[in-house]
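hiii, so i know i said id send this last week but things got crazy w the move. better late than never?? heres the sequnce for the chain we talked about at the cafe, plus the structure i predicted for it. fair warning i was half asleep when i ran it
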Amino acid sequence: MKVVSIISTKGGVGKTTTAANLGGFAADAGLRVLLLDLDIQPTLSSYFTLTHRAPGGIYELLAWNERNLGQLASRSSIERLDIIVSNDGQGQLNTLLLHAADGRLRLRNLLPAFQEQYDLLLIDTQGARSVLLEMAVLASDLSLSPVTPEILAARELQRGTLQLMQEIAPYQRLGIEPPPLRLLINRIHPVSADARQIQQALREVFQQRSGIQILETPIPAIEAYPRAALRGLPVHRMEYRRPNGRAAPAALESQCALASELFPQWRERFLRVSGKFPYVLPA
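okay and structure toks below
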């Protein structure tokens, strides 16, 4: 099972949208996907229609060390896509984990219970520094951080997310390597000169940083993403062809390129995904 945390200490950069669409695309490619909503504002938990809601959620997982998937994993309307919903509306988990001896490592210790049931686990996190955020990163094989092409977003990335990665580095003494960090340029306007300049500046700043890589695939600012969220669908099902006269690629093309760059071992599966039912084309 590949574990990816989607992180940023800045809100509003598109973490939940990234998690939902990447998870939906991977599920349509035939992977067994589990979404874990660690944000106390449970946007990801309500993105997709649930065909079955489990009795528990992240509170039972992290406060009670619940490992029974029947108690934790809700089924979404997307085949092969499950979610452990956020049900910590009072924000108690941060305090609980802060004072627990294994707080920052609890999720890492619980994940082997899901290893046989899923191929991919995507963890959505809160847009603020917290014990939950550090716990998610330490449980991950890879961290993905969306960053919008704005100078303030770039500064917050330096001050917040990258500082977090540096501060968890001492866990190497326990044999826990911090995961590599991938930066995703999100909501880029193809015709904006400022956005292109900031994108290039980000690449120049981080190209020499060990463990940090800016992905080659940017996600364009197109109307298909809010439309898909409104309908509770992965965006590749909403837009599988590029509209005439638009420079930005179709959402299906962007999601396929992003998934292939992150998970090259599944690239052949991704290339068979269609925007029309059945969503996976014959091999």
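btw The longest helix spans residues 151-167. thought thatd interest u
miss u guys!!
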